[in-house]
Amino acid sequence: MTRSRPASGPAGLALRPAAAGCWSVTSSEQLCLACGLCCDGTLFDGVQLEPGDDVRRLKSLGLPVTLSRGRNPVGRFPQPCKALCADRTCRLYADRPRQCRIFECGVFKEMQAGRTDPAAALRQVKKARRLADRVRKLLLQLGDTDEQRALGERFFRMQCRMEEQPADPAALATFADLSLAVHRLKLLAHDKFYTRPPQPSAK
Ligand code: SF4
Ligand code: SF4
User: Fold this and answer.
1) Residue ranges of the domains in the chain?
2) CA of 32 relative to ligand 2 center, distance in Å
3) Strand partners, 90
4) Helices (H), strands (E): how many in the chain?
5) For 41, what's the count of Cα atoms within 13 Å in the CB-facing half-sphere?
6) Is the minimum distance from the CB of 131 to ligand 2 under 6 angstroms?
7) How far is CA 156 from CA 45, 149, 152, in A?
8) What ranges in 142-168 are assigned the alpha helix state H?
9) Dist. CA 37–CA 60, nearest whole Å
10) For ligand 2, is residue 150 a contact (CB within 6 Å)?
């Protein structure tokens, strides 16, 4: 799924967690720095550019932007994002494209609005990260080491492989576990993280 909904560029926030390994958060910015799921290929498989985004500059900054064919080509770059740093900050924060600027996931929004307290928001992020880690681990067990691709793409590819080639019972059991983990992650993502795009205002 390409990120094309309002949300915020999270991981790009200039703040850092209070201390490495410290999992308490007091602000939505710190929540993002504990998360990074909207940049690392867990929630989305790419980011679609919009009019006003400077494709040439983004390319020069190292984002592998490709353009669709057709009369009005649309730019896109894949996730996991090349600009995402190990500490979950965004290397291109000042230059990040519009989708990254405006995206705010549901957990972020709820916390910012005061409807979810920081500890509960952090629990949701940690739960999603645990599920994503489980998906990665199971993919690895099945021989997929391609960490440069989004989780959804990796799962789809594995599904195709399982359908095309006979697998031994152990691999089938692992694939069943993987399918369940992906299903749980998707449910959580739809329930807590994805947000609806804003409706165009009538003029
Ligand atoms: S998914 Fe939400 S909490 Fe996580 S980094 Fe993105 S905006 Fe922040
Ligand atoms: S440019 Fe990449 S790392 Fe930065 S906010 Fe956008 S998706 Fe995240």
Assistant:
1) 2-193
2) 12
3) 84
4) 7, 4
5) 21
6) no
7) 12, 11, 6
8) 151-164
9) 25
10) no
What residue's CA is closest to ligand 2, atom 8? Answer: 39
DSSP string, 55-108: HHHHHHTT---EE-SSSS--EEEESS-TTB-TTS-BTTGGG--HHHHHB--HHH
| ω into 80 cis (within 30 of 0) | yes
Token pair in block for residue 19: 């201390």
pLDDT at 4 over 70: no
Per-residue exposure over 102-132, b if at least 16 CB sit within 10 Å of its own CB, e if not: ebbbbbbbbbbeeebeeeebbebbeebbebb
Residue 185 pLDDT greater than 50, yes or no: yes
Cα–Cα distance for residue pair 42/131, rounded to 1 Å: 10
pTM: 0.86
Looking at all shown ligands, the one closest to residue 104's CA atom is 1
Helix, strand or coil, per DSSP, at residue 4 = coil
Q: What is the 126 CA–ligand 1 centroid distance (Å)?
A: 11
